[in-house]
Amino acid sequence: MSRKPFIAGNWKMHNTVEESVNLIEGLKAAKNKNNADIMVAPSFTSLSAVVRASAGTGFKVAAQDCYYEDKGAFTSQVSPVQVKGTGATHVILGHSERRSLFGDTNEVLNKKVAAALNHGLVIVFCVGETLEQREGGKTEEVIKDQLVNGLKGFSAEQLKDLVIAYEPVWAIGTGKTATPEQAQDTHKAIRAMLAEQLGKEFADGVRILYGGSVKADNVDAIMAKEDVDGVLVGGQSLIAEKFNRIIDYN
Ligand code: PEP
């Protein structure tokens, strides 16, 4: 089945508003020869400016997280309503840094998924195992738990725009990339889990991105794998020439 490629940049806690806008200007040089969906996820502070700077490019703009309440006394949190108000259309949920550093459990994420869907945000839902879990043979068990509990209660119809990002924790920001074969094997397993959970039609159509030290010199081999539909890129998405080369993978 042909699925539209999806190339995403997670800028994490980098870039002022001005730097964010400059980066968007640099990304306009990409040819997008693979006709991919291109998404950037700046900090909350830069969302509005990045949405404005992206006008006419087709770039999707995402928040890196959102809270599950619409409004209220939740100092420092940002709601899906506020994200929508910036003009952003997407949100990353369940990034491993959110899970490990900020207490985003599967149960919390399930509430965030509900809130984001409720406000029509497209979710990029991250899953992945630690090195210890991989070495202990627990990769599939961990990911299944993340999918079953994080997406609990939603139908294939409600999740029709969902994008999954498989990001092995041991490969994020470490320079260690999963081999293309490891990525393919895990993506295939994820697709099978989703078929069981949400049906074959959903599983065949859902885009599964690989994330973890993706760079210009490994993107081609990773993207060549059948069940890899795109990449979620951290460090290398902060430099326009490098991210443009990833967008225009061969
Ligand atoms: C990420 O932050 O999602 C990520 C994959 O980071 P990096 O590409 O830097 O490993």
Describe the protein in words:
- The protein has 250 residues and is α/β, with parallel strands linked by helices.
- The chain has one domain: TIM Barrel (Alpha-Beta Barrel).
- It is 40% helix and 15% strand.
- It is built from 11 helices and 8 strands.
- It has an 8-stranded parallel barrel with strand order 1-2-3-4-5-6-7-8, surrounded by 6 helices.
- Helix 1 links the parallel strand 1 and strand 2.
- Helix 1 packs across helix 11, helix 5 crosses helix 7 and helix 7 crosses helix 8.
- The longest helix is centred in the C-terminal third of the chain and has 19 residues.
- 42% of the residues are buried.
- The model has no long low-confidence stretch (mean pLDDT 97).
- The structure holds phosphoenolpyruvate.
- Phosphoenolpyruvate binds next to strand 8.
